[in-house]
Queue: 2 jobs
Job 1
Amino acid sequence: MQHVVVIGAGQAGASCVAKLRNGGFEGKITLIGAEPCPPYQRPPLSKGYLLGDMTLERLFLRPEAFYADQGIALKTDCRVTAIDPEARVLSTTEGEVAYDELVLATGSLPRRLPAAIGGDLDGVFTVRDLADVDAMAPRFVKGAKVLIVGGGYIGLEAAAVAAKLGLEVTLVEMADRILQRVAAPETSDYFRALHEGHGVTLREGVGLERLLGEGHVTGARLSDGTEIAADFVITGVGIEPDITLAKAAGIEIDNGIKVDARGRTSVPGIWAAGDCTSFPYRGGRIRLESVPNAIDQAEVVAENILGAGKDYIAKPWFWSDQYDVKLQIAGLNAGYDRVVSRLGDGSASFWYYLGDTLLAVDAANDPRGYMVGKRLIEAGKSPDPALVADPDTDLKALLE
Ligand code: FAD
C-alpha cells in the first residue's frame, strides 16, 4: 500500500492530507507535526485569539477526530530530524518512518533578535505559534508597557490588540515608515493615523540599538539614543522559510524550497507546499507567506500526487485586521509606479499600477473595492485610474 507522509501539521500540511483523501487516495497517510496540538489557524494568533475573543477549539482547522475518521495518522509533538531520500525513510523523535511520497510543509521560522543585543532576555516574544501567544498573553494587562519591534502586519496587529486592551504601546520601525516593505506610502499613512488615533506611539526611521535589562527585559535603547521602558517586548521582524530538513537532504533551495509548478522539489518523490517554498510565478519565482497560498498550493500537490499533472497558478490575496478595520489585499504590488487612492466614507482603497496595468489593491473596510480589484487583476483587466479614483464610479461597472 502506498504511504504518503507529510512533514508539518500546519495549514499546508492539513490541506494536503484532507485533499488526498477527498481525491480518493486509498493508501496510508501520515501527518507529522512538531507542535503538541492538531493543525490550527495562525492568523488569529495576532488578532482574535490574542485579544481573548476566540477559544482554542475554534483555532483548530478541523476537530481532532477528523484525522482518525479519515484514516489519517496524525503524529503531534513529533519532529522529523532527517530525510534519507535514497532509502525513502525519515528519522523522527519517535523512530523511523518509511514513505513512498513525501510532502514538506514545514512553514516558516520567525527571525529573532540576536542575543548580543538582548534578544535572549526573558520577556521578549515572537508571534509564530500557539506556544508564543500563550506565553505572552498573561502580560497583556491594562497599563503594562509593551514595546513592539517591527512595523509589518504582525507587529501592527499585536499593537492593535495591546492598545485595545489598554496597554501603553510603543512600536519601533527601522524603515522610514511602517509597512514599507509591503505597501505604498498611502497605506502606511492610513494605518499610522489609525494607530495614533488609538494612542499607539509610533517611532519610524529609528532602529533598535539594544534591549536593556538583566535577565528580564526592562526597556530598549534606540539608534537615536533615546531609551524606552518596557515590561515586555514583541518582535515582528520577518520570517524565513524553514528549509532546515530540505537543505540537509540535498534538496535545491532558492529563497525557500525550490519547487516547480506542480510542487515537485529537485528530489524524486519529494514535494513541498506553503510558506517554505518558492515557486514559478509569471516568468519569475516567488515565495508567499499566506493562508490562501498554503491551502491552494498544498491542494495542487495532493492532486498531483494522485496524478493530475496540474500546475499551481497563484492568485495572491491576503488580509489583516486592526481595530475595526479589515484590510484586504489582492494581487502583488511589486514594481508599481503609481498609486490611485479611492477614499470613501470610512473606507479607503489604494490601487497599484505599473503604467496602465493594475497590479494590486489594498482595500481597508472596502469589501467591494477588494472584490472588484481581485476579479480585475485575475482577469488581467486594468480600469482607467481616473474612474477608480472617482468616488461616484460604480466599481462593479468596471467589471463589465
Ligand atoms: P505553518 O502553518 O507555519 O506550519 C508549518 C508546521 O510545520 C509548523 O507547525 C511546524 O512546527 C511544523 N514543522 C516544521 N518543521 C518540522 C519538522 N522537522 N518536523 C515536524 N514538524 C515540523 N496569513 C494570511 O493569509 N492572513 C493573515 O492575516 C495572516 N496572519 C498571520 C498572523 C500570524 C501571527 C502568523 C504567524 C501568520 C499569519 N499569516 C497570515 C501567515 C499564515 O499563517 C501562514 O502563511 C501559513 O500558516 C503557512 O502555512 P504552512 O502550512 O506553510 O506553515
Job 2
Amino acid sequence: MPLPKAELHLHVEGTLEPELAFELAARNGVKLPYADTDELREAYRFQDLQSFLDLYYELMAVLRTERDFEDLANAYLARAAAQGVRHAEIFFDPQAHTSRGVEMGTVVEGLWRSLGRSVENHGVSTRLIMCFLRDRSAESAMRTLEDARPHLGRIVGVGLDSAEVGHPPVKFREVYEAAAALGLRRVAHAGEEGPPEYIGQALDVLGVERVDHGLRCVEDPALVERLVRERVPLTLCPLSNVRLRTVDTLAAHPLPAMLDAGLMCTVNSDDPAYFGGYAGDNFDAVRTTLGLSEERLRELARNSFLASFLEDDEELRQR
Ligand code: ES4
Ligand code: ZN
C-alpha cells in the first residue's frame, strides 16, 4: 500500500499523456507535428523551464471540449489514486485556453464533471486552483480573474506559474489583492528558476500561504530561517527539478538538507506526464536515491495534508 498523501503542486495540463494527446487530437481533428507517441516522447528532453513550456503549450491544442477536460482529469485522478493520493489541489491555466478560443466555462465545467465525482469514483478529494501566466500582463491576469467570477464556487484559490525569470511576484500585486478580496486562497511559484528574492516577494507582496517550488531559498540563509520560523509550506517537485535541470542530478537535490533545516517540505509531481512520474513515483525516487528514512517520508506525507486547503476535520479523516 502506498503512503496516503496529498498532492499540492500539479498542473492538470501537465498530466496529458502522449496516448491521450493523440486520442484527443483524432477526436477533435487537430493535427499534431509528431508522427506518433514515440516521436512525441522523444521531444521530452528539456534544457530548462522554457523549453518545456513551449511543448506544454503546444500540446494543449488538443484540449477543446468539456469532455476533453473531463477525460484529462479522470485519467490523472485514476493514476494518482493508484499511487496513494487521497487529496489533490489541482492547478489549471485558464489563459492558455481562453487565448486560443476555449472559454473559461468549458475548462472549469469540464474539469468539474470529473472533480465533482472524484471522491465517489477515485477516493480522492480535490480543490481547483486557477493560475495566472506570469509571462503575460497583469491586465490579462486581472481580466482572467473577472472571467472566473461566475465559476468561483468551484475555485478555491489562485496561483502564479509559467516563465519565472523577469516576471517577479510584485507584477501581480493588484491581482492578488483583488483575489484576496474575493475570498480566494493564494499560492505562487517562486524560486524555481527565479532568485530567492521572489520567494520573499510572494510572501510579502502577494500574501501567499504556500510557495510552489521555493527551491532556491537554500541560497539565502536568512530566508530559510524565516520560512522555518513561519512554517511556510514548500511544494517541491524533485523529478521536475531534474528534468528541467534546476538540479544537476536527483542525488544532488537539496531536499534532505531542507528537511534537516526544519523547512516544511512537501513532495509533488508538477507535470507528471512530462517529468517521468506521478506523486508516488516522486516519493519512491527520493526514498531510493536520496535515502530518506521512513520517518522522513511519513513527515512529508503528513506535511502534505497539513499544508492543504482541507478543513481540519476533513484533513484528519484523510491522513
Ligand atoms: C510549470 Cl514546472 C512549471 N513551472 C512553472 N510553470 C509551470 N506550468 C506548468 N508547469
Ligand atoms: Zn509547477
